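Thread: zinc ion complex, take 2
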Amino acid sequence: MVERRVIEVTGVVQGIGFRPFVHRLARSCQLSGYVRNNGRGVVIEVQGEGASLDGFEDRLFRDLPPGGRIDRSDRRPLPPEPAQNEFIIRESESRDRTIVSLAPDRSVCSDCLSELNDPSDRRYQYPFINCTACGPRYTIAMALPYDRPLTTMAEFDMCDSCRAEYSDPSDRRYHAQPIACPACGPRASLVLTDELLASMEIPSPKEIFGPDAIRRSAALLLDGRILAVKGIGGFHLAVDAFNEGAVVRLRELKRRPRKPLAVMAGSLRVARQIVMLDSSTERLLLSPQAPIVLAPKRKGEAVPPLLAPGLGDLGVMLPYSPLHHLLFQQGLALLVMTSGNPPSEPITTDNREAREMLGADAVLSHNRDIHVANDDSVVRTSSLGPLLVRRSRGYVPEAIPVPHLPERPVLALGAELKSTVATLDGGQLVVGRHLGDLDNVRAEEAFAAEVARMLAFARLEPEVVAVDLHPDMASSQYGRERFSGTPIHPVQHHHAHMVAVMVEHGLPVNRMATGIILDGFGLGTDGAVWGGEVLRGGYSRVERVAHLRYVPLPGGDRAAVEPYRMATSYLWDAGFDEGSSDAFDSAVAQVAATQRVSPPTSSAGRLFDGVAALLGVAPRRMDFEGEAAARLEALADEEVTDGYPLPLDGEVLDTRGLIRAVMADSAAGPVRAARFINGLADGLVAAAMREETDVVVLGGGCLVNRLLLMRLVFRLRGSGKEVYFPTRLPSGDGGISAGQAACAACALDEEA
Ligand code: ZN
Ligand code: ZN
Ligand code: FE
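Output below.
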């Protein structure tokens, strides 16, 4: 009995070889029909025996190519067409308004890796091997549709062998846009600086190409040199992680005395020797996303101390481009791989800039251009599962399905630190790449380019543009200028944090929740600097029901980088004075008493800074955001279960109670650090428990602190609350744009 069916599929189905996969599958099930892209995804018409059709549908889901994701499939019967007897791939209808997600960049797949290492393969040791399941995507796409002439591969003419593979639907490189081989594709090159050449005993050419470039690169690294290495989304600066002198030189070059440096381990075995990994994080390391995983360092000698001084975690990743694999095959075990950028500018993607600006001894690069930068993504391990800290390469621009939100086209511009841009349309939320902090001209240029690209890719004309409530933020100012004819919807920072979590977990639009939002700073509706807030409400509006007691932010922004200022402020606020602690600074106390230069803050981030300084683990001046808090977390003894009091008086969580307890406690630092974190969490939980909502949402950058997050989650669950916290979007400001977009869409829908 012959039947015919049409199946419509939406999700991540472009740039992953979905149509060839359907083609092969249909043929193996002996079905006729066709597959093509349409405006919403992919349409498949299949005809054959009923049982074969069912088998085909099962395998469609089960055997989906790596990186693909089906969000929705609809099917209906059609009358059979007896004349049809083959299965074909039809051309796309590019006129359709596409909302098909472009696939993110993928780490090299296992099939390509075995070819890379097979001496009989024509791509043996070819650093740009890829297929429909792997390789660059987002970073080489100049426009949509994702097609070779619109990528940075356009300038390479395919050789006959590559073209044959590219055109053969049964080949695993069918329509692999970056397809290449040694005969026709990009090639690697190593450029040595004149200083390096002058210092060498044996004369060497300045520029070396092909396999020699990789061999020489490895030799230079083993010799303690600093190399700039071109990756998928930008350059890394690399040194041998076990060479102390090289790491010191790299830190001097980057002007980063203590900022943690991520490492790339040659294999999972090496990674296991330096950090503690569980099965879920090992899977992540090996996944097509191949993020940096922040995991606890192993005790002992294995980890060079200079990599992440004073911190409990180390960031580790595995080789993800074929070039990385070839480099590690030359006798390297562990490389520092930190993003290559001129100080406080975005990551470098340009070959010339890499040679002139990064200060490396040599540059290992190639002639496949990176059209758009994409930083390494960062995931932190926890007993609650992996937590995404920075969502970029490998994840962007994968859409988050949001069928529960009103269908209003929205652009959201994020905040100022760890900036991201988001678009919302047609049931899809797309959060863009990590743009870094918008505190320099280059970053602001990248921000404007990203807005243009996101709008073009989503073919979006926003009905409203969502920005942070803070009018002076670069993103808010840009929104008002660039979209002067479009309504602007300001969203309070911590409301956006809360809604980002609600969106991620698909909470319905009418759901009321209590939010515990803990971060560094965001402008509050009363003009104060918020950051330790308990909110109640939902997508379109919230009210504040409790907050950490306001203390002065002595000298404004400087207090965010000099923890002793906050220590002084909290001591002063709690009635302590000169001599009460080494961290007390009388000049700062005077500044704190001057309201004009010391705005009030309820920031949890600043509370962590202050207490870290009281416990003697904070640096005088922080080298990176969150340094003091990370040191406090590393100090804390996980076995300690009791906490300091944090009295709740009306709306105010009185931090003076915490500070007095910290000062009165004669226990050791690790005990006091743990008691502080526990007490803070318990106080916030008590405030949230006054609310009648079933749901409690946790958000804000302070949640990267595992001890704090775990204490909050366990206490709230133990009290019968349904608890949600960020996992797939960053808890910090990288998630803000997602929350803003959903807020604005819901507010707009309510007005109508
Ligand atoms: Zn592959
Ligand atoms: Zn070729
Ligand atoms: Fe924030």
